[in-house]
Structures are given as structure tokens and as C-alpha cells.
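Could you please consider the sequence and fold following this short note?
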Amino acid sequence: MNVARYISHKIDGGADSGSFTSSVTKIAIISIAMGLAVMVVSFAILQGFRNEIQNKIFSFGAHLQISRYDTNNSLEVAPIAGPRLVKQLHQVPEVKSTQPFAVKTAIIKTKEEVLGVVLKGISETDGLSPMRQNLQAGKFMSFPDSAASDDVLLSRKVANKLRLAVGDKALFYFIQSPPRIRQFRVSGIYSTGLDEFDDVYVIGDIRQIRELNSPAWPDSLVGGMEVMLRDFTALDTTYEHLYEHLPYDLKIDKVTEQYAQLFDWLKLLNRNVIIFLILIIFVATFNMVATIFIMILERTNMIGILKALGSTDNQIRQIFFFRGLSLTVRGMLIGNVIAVGFCAVQYYFHLIPLDPENYYMDRVPISWDPRMLLLLNVATFGASLLAVLIPTYLIARIKPVVAIKFD
């Protein structure tokens, strides 16, 4: 039988519920529980927020975007051969899917409003478009085999400005030589929450843009290619590989460079949260140090008697170590229950809303990451045990004769 653990258990079970030590012990447990709960919830929200923002960006711009070099700084660039490029891209193991696209500037005119937009034509020949996740009303446009679809998706902001709803029709004026007019039907309303997209883009069938160009593009030509990777962390290495192997007249852009301001903002947010979590761990461990100090002072008589009976300093340290270990484990169990419970409630019931105008989403997001949960628990456990060990070295300075007389 481990004597130190036995004595620690007796001290734990025999503590007077109304004593000062009992109150301090409860504060230590609450401190660890709340500290761990706040850290887990903070990381879950931060990761969820980052994932939501990134998914919105990826749904519109993918991980990589390939197009032809152009010196006129125009949205409408020279076309590239789609099938040959797709074949080359799918030979790269990191590439998950590709989506051809083409863009064309237009002016939408209704009975009451006029608005300049960019019509982005897409295709679903290589799988469903990630833009489907942003659909809020209506249905996603269809892609018939016989002809180009007349359906378009408007953002919520554009639809509100033009006072258009699902099922309405609007005239699109394309300023080119010769000028052209097309009537499109609003099949759905989307919203990413990101002004960079919602203020400008209308989603349509790429075949419409092919037909509008003069001369018309054949089906083999596209304005560019969006590339989704299997793992976003492989972005830089895949970019370098494609940069070296693509034809010289094609350029490749990373999403982190196209929307650098958004990704820099996410990095800054991540840095602030890490500083905040370090402060929480410091406060929790400081409370544990203070608690063990108080326990040692209150048990000075017991320490003196144990030393007089022949106990070594290490044996007595073990008593308070096991005491601190017990408090840490209890606090962590309570903290995990609180954190996981809160995250589950928010994840399934969306109790805490957000203003989409400021936060790009309508609710507090939650991301489940077992590895991060484990890492936070290990960090809290390690910091708490270190905090327990520090004050136990005071025991070596306690003299048996003085300690027995201590009151």
C-alpha cells in the first residue's frame, strides 16, 4: 500500500466542509474547471470561426486558381484549353477536384434599379459546386445537356438592391462589340457573408458566357480553372509543383494571396486567443500554488509529527502531490463536462446568434477537434502538476520541533 496516497486520501475525505482549507480547495477545483472549460470553448469557437470563413472563401475561389497571363488588368481574360489542363491537374495526387469558370461584366436592369455586376459562369462536370453550401433560398441552377441554363444565383445583397426574389426575371446588358442583352431567371439566393463576393458576383452557367463572347468560344475553352486540394496544408507545396510544371503562358494564384487581408485577420485573431489562453493557464496554476501553500501551512503540525516518526521530505511531498493531483483531476473532469456540454448545445441548437454584417455568419460556430481537446487537457494537467510541485519544496525547510509546536 502506498502510505503517501493513503494519508492524502484520508486528508481529502476528512476535511471539514466548513474549514478555510475546504473553501480554498473548492476554489482551486473551480479555477481549474473554468480555466479548462474556457480554453476548450475558445478553441472550438476559434477553429469553427476559421473553418467557416475559409469554407466560404474556398466555395468561391477554391484553393488555387489558374488562368492565362494578361497585361490589361481586366476581369475578362483570354481563354485556355480546359480538357488538356484538367488532365494535367488530375495527375497531381494532391488535387481533389477542378472546376472551370469564366467571368463577364454586366449591368442588371430592372423596372426600378440598375446595378453593375460580374457574371461568373461555372460548370459541374467534375462534381457538385461548393457554392451549393451558400444557398439560402430557392434552388441551385440546373445544367441541362441540350442548351445553356437561363438560371442565375444572386447574392442576398444584390437581390435586395435590385428588389428581386426567387423566380423573378431580369435583363443583363453586356457592354461589348456588338452589345448584347440576355434575360435570366433568379433560381436561388446565396449569401457568403463576405462583401468581396456578395457585392459583386452573380453565378450562372459557363455556357452562357461562351456564347456571349465574340467570337463564341467552343466547349473546350474556359476562362480559368479552380483547383480544390485534398489537404489545405499542402497548398504551398502543390503551388510550387504546379508553378514549375504548368505552361509558361498560364499563371497560378493561391487563395491566401488573393484574399490576403482575410487570412491575415484570421492569423491575428489566432495570436490574440493564444495570449488569452496563456493568461488563463497562469491564473489557474497560480491558484493551485496558493492552495497547496495553504494546505501545507494548515498541516504544519502533521508534517512535524511525520518527520519525528522518520518520514522523509520526499514521502511528505508525495502526500501533497497526490492531494493536488486529486484536485486537478476533479477540476478537469468538471471542466470537460462544462465545455463539451456547452459546445454540444451551441452546435445543435444555435442558441447564441451573431450579426452577419460584422461576423460573416449568423451564429457562433463550433468545430470538434479531438486532438485539440486532448492537447488542452494535457497542457492543463502538466501545468497544474508543476504548480503542485513548487510549493511542496517548502516542506524541506520545516523543522520537526518547531512544527509540532506550531499553532
